[in-house]
Amino acid sequence: MGRGLFDRIGDAPGTACADHLRAFRALVLAHWATQAWAWWWAPPELEIAIGSLGFALSAVVLTACTGVALVSCGSYGKGAAGRRVNRFSSSIGTVVAACLVAGIAPFTPNHTFLALVCLAVFALLDPETEDEGVLALAALRWLAVIVFFWAGVQKLTYGLYFRGEFLTWMIAHGGPRWAALFSWIVPDAELARLSSYGRYSLEAGPYRANSLLLVLLSNSVWLAEVGLALGMFWQRTRVAAALAAIALTFLIQLAPREFMFALLYAQLLFLFVPGEWNRRLLIPLLALYVYLVAVLMGAPGELLLRRGGTL
Amino acid sequence: MKRSLVVSFLALFALWPAIQRGLAWHYDIDPWKGFGFAMYSVPGPMKTVRVMPLLGSRRAPALDIDAYSEAEQRAVDRFRERRRALGRLASMEPLGRRMLELHADWQGVAIVVVTLSLDAETARLALGIREQEIWRDGRVGPERTPVAPGR
């Protein structure tokens, strides 16, 4: 990755991005605080190296770091003292997040690792400095491109999207949401065929879509992921590609409803879109994180989190 | 300096999913884990674990999974979850040793891992079996695919 290629995705030096990055930093910390509270409330049912007290302490520290970052979204964050406090707070947040990632290894969800890397960018780089701000913005955009590109390439390499194999499997065995979501494009006869397959039966199958629409949809997923990732490189297609990627990310989550990844990823993609949408949507997004924790704790919200699910 | 650090890290971040893909192919690690961003590429791994006592030269039938003691269940669950995530990088030996601790009358134990995966070629489930023998006297057999699947 040479200097030219790296810079291709960033903004020109002198472009103001500090306000947007400050808001993004607060959202990443809020993401982590949400995750820590969720793990404290519903610890993963796995043999992991971190217990309830560890999750609780992490949640408190990350919430405090989020508070610091939020205060700094105002004019306070631009001063020397505010910048020092923020660097310190981002560093503490990064260390705590790294401990959480290591503590639940090898079961760490990919989105928490991505959130850790995003946070580490702010521990290393100061968005208030012009050079480092532009560098941070380019690095964060690169993360978004790499993740989307590989999400598509991985689907390609496993070979379960060409004839709709993965989607067919999920319609058959992924639960009522998957079947309901695809019922509008999959003929009733095919739904009946798939629902007759035993989950662990070696004879069941083939898990291939007969519906042309489902085959097209299946292939369009990986093609769109690779294509949109490449589209984010070019100035002319960048914004459209980022907006389409946000839409695709949320569409993909309609059935599994694992919105923690989608939320974080949408915030990363907002960094491509003019208008500082992370800053504008800061309060609604924070409210959404709080609401996600509330849903986990029993508040109504089946649309965001499946019953018995975790964040 | 910071720029070089960032660019180097991003290069590693961009390369890692290819390595993770190789690990998934070679060691059967969970494609959904390990920061390879292969979520929704394949169904989640389906693995079951069977424990067979070795009594002298005879291999007894697998323990009834519904009759596990709490300690046995915990040991098997712990191994199965690690095996789901880490594939063949998660050794069967610790589970075998734990089972021998719990059963003083066994000379050894065979651990069998059965994996079901959706095969891209046939679009049906494919069966994969791996097993390993762990003996009380310290001998550990190689992890292998049994000659006669389903034994």
For this entry, give a set of tags.
heterodimer; A: 311 residues; mainly alpha; globular; B: 151 residues; alpha+beta; 2 domains; 4-stranded antiparallel sheet; 35% helix; 23% strand
What does this entry show, briefly?
The complex is a heterodimer of chains A (311) and B (151). With 311 residues, chain A is an all-alpha fold.
Question: What does this protein structure show overall?
Answer:
The longest helix of chain A is centred in the middle third of the chain and has 29 residues, at 130-158. With 311 residues, chain A is mainly α. Chain A folds into two domains: 18-128 and 281-311; 139-271, no CATH class. The mean pLDDT of chain A is 91. Chain A is built from 14 helices and no strands. The two termini of chain A are 34 Å apart. Chain B is α+β, with helices and mostly antiparallel strands. Chain B folds into two domains: 1-42, no CATH class; 46-135, no CATH class. Chain B has helices at residues 2-27, 70-86, 93-102; strands at residues 46-55, 58-59, 108-118, 125-135. Chain B has a four-stranded antiparallel sheet with strand order 2-1-3-4. The mean pLDDT of chain B is 94. The chains are: A mainly alpha (311), B alpha+beta (151). At the A-B interface, helix 5, helix 6 and helix 7 of A face helix 1, helix 2 and strand 4 of B.
